[in-house]
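Comment thread on ticket #2218

A.B. wrote:
> Attaching the input chain for the structure job we discussed in standup.
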Amino acid sequence: METARLDGFLADRDAWRATQCSIAKAMDVIGTRSAMLILREAYYGTTRFDHFAERVGITEAVAAARLRELTAEGLFERQPYKEPGQRTRHEYVLTEKGRDVLPAVLALMQWGDKYLQGERGGPLDLADDTSGEPVHVEVRSESGRRVPLGELRVVPNVTAEQARRAMERDRER
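C.D. wrote:
> Ran it. Output below, let me know if you need it in another format.
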């Protein structure tokens, strides 16, 4: 079975718990279907509250809750706008933090296209706007080499490992 290699204190899986797991923290922020689809719509250019609710197919109450949560987490900024003759309203604009989730959203789309859509694949394709080349999400090293799961090494973050050791010393006292 192909798995990632765990280094350092991570190698003894019974000796540690992933209590500060970044995946768990990310899922706490964007782990609902409506949050992911709101992000999808924002990447496609949606900014207005009623358009999010309509395009995602959710109630206004759910849209309000998700947009409030995503804004509180810093993925969106509310910006005022005013249509002629109307009251001031707010639109939701992606922040850098919101734009940085794009690879995760596209990876889910790519996975769904491959495993859930049948032989024809998904209804949409991704292409580089400049070259027209297909776009794919992959795990790559900094030098650009594709890294399969069996060649992925998980290493402790030195700062996090120091914090873990300090917590263990505090518990022993």
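A.B. wrote:
> Thanks. Noting for the ticket: The helical segments are 22-30, 33-43, 49-56, 60-72, 96-99, 102-115, 158-172.
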